Automatic annotation (TrEMBL):
Domain spans labelled Beta-galactosidase galactose-binding: 521-574
Protein name per Swiss-Prot or TrEMBL: Beta-galactosidase
Domain Beta-galactosidase 1-like first all-beta as annotated: residue spans: 385-493
Organism: Micromonospora arida
Cross-referenced InterPro entries: B-gal_1-like, BetaGal1-like_ABD1, BetaGal_gal-bd, Galactose-bd-like_sf, GH, Gly_Hdrlase_35_cat, Glycoside_Hdrlase_35
Family the entry assigns: Belongs to the glycosyl hydrolase 35 family.
């Protein structure tokens, strides 16, 4: 193994514990015994902590012997200058320990970049706001990474197998071969892990192409593949380049994620199992990505960019995984379980209990702008609108106000570079919605000054590719026809950090006179159980359940229902708050089945 006797090793065998996983002659071993890693991705940050053990058991029932998870830096340290948090939902060591208690090994993928369709690929917005070359050996980047690793890596190190823990492998960065070619960066990450106590197997993971392999691998470190199909071709490439290494598929995409405005991606059971069989037939170890997807709670969903067009990811991260978003064991679960050779009694139910379907009225309490202004935030003034980064804001909204004089007649408000969606109001009246593809809003002037308010919403930070770290807000000037509007007041609205008191202030800022704003629904529950929330007639907004920000909804689909796990509910009265940016519907529905929209077989990455 690279940590003991491979070329390029920096660890002294006599002082370093032997890693659990090793290899010889292309065969993977665990403590010297031939071994195949059968792993599944399950992210602690996408599953309510009271459900961690249940979901881990479902992985074990699937026939897996290993769990793998990313570690999102921004989830643990969203604010610059504050110590990272590792308590509650962020208690990584508790999650690892639970996996070990359930008999699973653990593979950790600490990044610092993780992709994972997670906001900013896991990098904190306070870091990407700076003038820094991301994912490189730029000291402005590696300095903060070192400080983060000083906090994180020792926690992983003490959960390694030699210390009685479950961690058997740690990934060096993540799919770097599809991003950059800084030859010093990956070796630096590898050294940073070793220096902080990692003694288990280190590996890289990249797509099976020459280009990705060239930039994404490190001499003396196991090279693993990420793929959705054609494992035979991947095996041949890796065998040619690394003839002595075992074939390891660090991500096998047996499903796919969704963007707002697209269809719900699925992969047929036959297709998924056929490729799994082929990986095993090639002698490979494999990790199902995802085994259980979970949920992008709050505002953590990321985004992609296609030819400059933003593709925000939906709240659900079901990913058509064998274990569904709510834990249900799907047909894909049972077929894969058979393919993996698992037998015996299942320890978990096929599905968790659910509340009976019902409807409750939505009571419109306050208009959008008055409700937002009721939660006081620091304001800044300047000649230009302040961006999210200038305001120190990761996610949520920014309210911008100016008072331009609009000549009499028809004119156009132009948002020259809006990221990502903006509600435009004139003297308190909504006059349009703007985005990058539709930046112009018509306005009729009277020859007087108008109170121009622009509410800009971040729909998700890009998590993959060269646009990672792209800033949010109004990045270009606002025009009236061709004339730039100056003199702005900018107010950050950190919705992800709102407390129950903030919600009470917002919903008490009535009366409501427009179609948008804040609404409240209350429901009495005898015994908490899972449910699925739908908002028929509503257009676009956010939902809080008993003060917890569940996520975003949007009538462009594909997702119709939001999964609400039982631990978010309580016996007795429960309060649902809805922030609607466009037009509020009359009711909140509780459904007993998820609805993720019309489906589409995802074939691009597979066939």
């Amino acid at each position: 193994m690279i940590e003991t006797n491979r070329p390029g090793n920096t660890v002294t065998p006599s002082t370093t514990p032997s890693p659990a996983l090793g290899w010889s002659d292309s065969q993977l071993h665990r403590h010297g015994v031939p071994h195949r890693v059968l792993s599944g991705a399950l992210h602690y940050f996408r599953v309510h902590p009271q459900l961690w053990r249940d979901r881990i058991r479902r992985l074990a029932d699937l026939g897996l012997n290993t769990l793998d998870t990313y570690v999102p830096w921004n989830f643990h340290q969203p604010h610059a200058g504050r110590a990272p948090r590792f308590d509650g939902w962020r208690d990584l060591e508790a999650f690892i320990a639970l996996a070990g208690e359930e008999g699973l090994d653990v593979v950790l993928r600490p990044g610092p970049f993780i992709c994972a369709e997670w906001s900013n690929g896991g990098l904190p917005a306070w870091l990407t706001a700076r003038d820094v070359v991301l994912r490189s050996s730029d000291p402005a980047y590696t300095g903060p990474v070192e400080r983060w690793f000083d906090e994180l890596i020792p926690r992983i190190a003490r959960q390694q197998t030699h210390a009685g823990g479950a961690v058997v492998a740690v990934q060096v960065e993540n799919e770097y071969g599809s991003y950059g070619d800084d030859g010093a960066y990956l070796p630096w990450i590898r050294s940073a892990l070793l220096e902080r106590g990692i003694t288990e197997l280190l590996f890289t993971a990249d797509g099976p192409t020459e280009l990705m392999h060239d930039a994404g691998t490190v001499p003396g470190t196991l090279a693993a593949a990420t793929l959705g199909s054609k494992p035979e071709a991947a095996r041949a490439l890796f065998a040619k380049r690394r003839p002595d290494e075992p074939f390891v598929v660090a991500e096998y995409w047996n499903g796919w994620f969704d963007h707002w405005g697209e269809r719900h991606h699925v992969r047929s059971v036959d297709s998924a199992v056929r490729t799994l069989d082929a990986i095993i037939g090639e002698g490979g170890s494999v990790s199902l990505y995802m085994a259980h997807g979970g949920t992008n709670f709050g505002l953590w969903a990321g985004a992609n960019a296609d030819r400059g067009r933003l593709q925000p990811t939906i709240t659900s991260y079901d990913s058509d995984a064998p274990i569904a978003e709510d834990g249900t064991l799907t047909a894909k679960f049972h077929a894969m379980r058979a393919a993996l050779g698992a037998t015996g009694q299942l320890r978990v139910p096929e599905r968790m209990p659910v509340l009976p379907p019902t409807q409750v009225p939505l009571t419109h309490r306050a208009d959008l702008i008055s409700g937002l202004r009721a939660v006081r935030t620091p304001e800044s003034t300047g000649p230009r609108p302040a961006t999210f980064e200038q305001l120190g804001l990761d996610a949520g909204m920014v309210l911008l106000t100016a008072h331009p004089k609009i000549p009499t007649g028809a004119h156009t408000i132009v948002l020259t570079d809006v990221r990502d969606r903006a509600i435009v109001l004139a003297d308190g009246v909504p006059i349009g919605v703007a985005d990058a593809e539709h930046p112009e809003i018509p306005i009729n002037g009277t020859g007087a000054a108008v109170r121009l308010e622009i509410l800009v919403e971040n729909l998700g930070r890009i998590n993959y590719g060269p646009l990672i770290g792209q800033h949010k807000g109004l990045l270009g000037p606002v025009l009236v026809d061709r004339r730039i509007v100056h003199g702005w007041t900018s107010s950050p609205i950190a919705l992800a950090e709102w407390t129950p008191d903030d919600l009470r202030l917002a919903t008490a800022a009535g009366p409501a006179s427009t179609g948008a704003g804040f609404a409240v629904a209350t429901m009495h529950i005898e015994e908490p159980a899972d449910t699925f929330l739908a908002l028929p007639g509503s257009v676009h907004g956010l939902v809080w359940v008993n003060g917890f920000l569940l996520g975003r909804y949007w009538d462009i689909g594909p997702q119709v229902t939001l999964y609400c796990p039982a631990p978010l509910l309580r016996t007795g009265e429960n309060t649902i708050v809805v922030l609607e940016t466009d037009r509020l519907g009359p009711v909140l529905e509780l459904r007993d089945q998820p609805e993720l929209g019309p489906t589409e077989e995802y074939v691009e990455e597979f066939d």
